[in-house]
């Protein structure tokens, strides 16, 4: 009996499972390959956009460094992705089809284009050859860069992994924030503080976006956010947030110091990296515990049953209702 | 042909682009009320499909020493032992209620009930594994089933966490994803899948999905009439979160007791919303970078 004396609609929730075994298979994606790729892809995306804007606003040293980081990030990320495959020699099969229902297919095409363009832009800059083609490649890479900063969130969300799928509204913003802070980190490390004003703005904005997205995710997901706060995932997430906030604060407070700016840049890069590891580990943990799969689904069934009961239908197969003989 | 990601589909092979003269959709109806847990299906599947052996591993949880479906297990017999109130137990004739030579448990008034269930790939109407596969290795056959092409799979592993039932996995020494093919090779020769052929009690029934749905409905009604109130169909409803399964079940307890998700939903149902959120985040990030550069003094 409930406190108000009403008969409960359904028996109290009792969690049941098959010997505690997971219902879904945990992701086979390897660490550090996949979280490192998420980090590098986001870093490359942010750097590419920064390179273009730095060129447009006459910040040539920052443009050059960002251009090289964008190319290196895309190349490194691709290497991690290929290494993660069960059959690396078949990596070209990723471009066998163009498949809008697969975020990994879309991502592979974007990465292939982005990697080629940002690589060309960097190569042209370093060698001094074909400057107009290099410039054009950079503009096109910069146009793809917002996708590079966010699509990996769709990649993880489009799975049955509870902590990833249910977080699909917030993860893109979390990843976008992390991409911005990592780009800011590159800026703070590579140029004189006097020229790093945009990087400081990005550091503060990116860290704020990361923190806001994480808060919102925790609030909205309720019990399903637990994997983000416990175990190794919890430690990664906490470290990520702490480093991002510390990096942003140091960037602003130490804006006249070359050393403090560099420290802030390193912290921002580290924070972005830690958060990607945190998200990766949280997904794995939520997949391994059948509770996170079964309980939200049970809850959904209970709500549906309550709704149809309110509408006057009693489903014959309503679980938990046993008629005596 | 529109690419529908969610909801009921009349003709799943036609939706995948097969011409109108394609064969009827086929699948399994696994009636766990007559499963005796012999595991002939597991063995027949391994034999026919050349699925690699696994070392003998005693899991110590029940008579189930296979554990779960995976790259090297395409049929898995789950084994549940539970103590149930005596008056709720109904003798179905086969299998008999409880183990031979005694049914009582330590708890008064409760007898042992054994539940056995041969699990398999569900060959979903909306198969998340197929949707997310980036290489096109996973495909819909003319029979409406879902099959991995091992010569194309590059082992990216995306199908593994995408499946709401935990069916697929990568084979460690080989790197590729493997799962039940519903014996695609046998189907083209007019033979039923090896597991159904080997099942001694017809717990595993093969046929067209339309016919199996009718049979399942009849069977669950018969069991209910006989007093088995817990009998329920699982995965047969085209209105469920995966558009109905090609391989569905009659269960004697809640799905999660057998290791099945109680209300699976294909993850790609939310794909367009995912992209919209990512798009908004991408715009925010781009705007942030533009503002940071344009707004900063030199």
Structure description:
Chain A is an all-alpha fold and 325 residues long. Chain A is 70% helix and 0% strand. Mean pLDDT of chain A is 93; it is low at 1-9 and 316-325. By secondary structure, chain B is of the alpha+beta class. Chain B is 25% helix and 17% strand. Chain B has helices at residues 12-15, 40-49, 128-132, 159-162, 184-187, 194-198, 209-225, 271-295; strands at residues 26-31, 75-85, 110-120, 138-140, 146-148, 169-170, 177-178, 204-208, 232-234, 247-251. A four-stranded mixed beta sheet of chain B has the order 8-1-10-9. In chain B, strands 2-3 form a two-stranded antiparallel ribbon. Chain B has a two-stranded antiparallel sheet with strand order 4-5. The longest helix of chain B is centred in the C-terminal third of the chain and has 25 residues, at 271-295. The relative contact order of chain B is 0.20. The mean pLDDT of chain B is 93. Classes of the chains: A mainly alpha (325), B alpha+beta (298). At the A-B interface, helix 1, helix 3, helix 4, helix 6 and helix 7 of A face helix 3, helix 4, strand 6 and helix 8 of B.
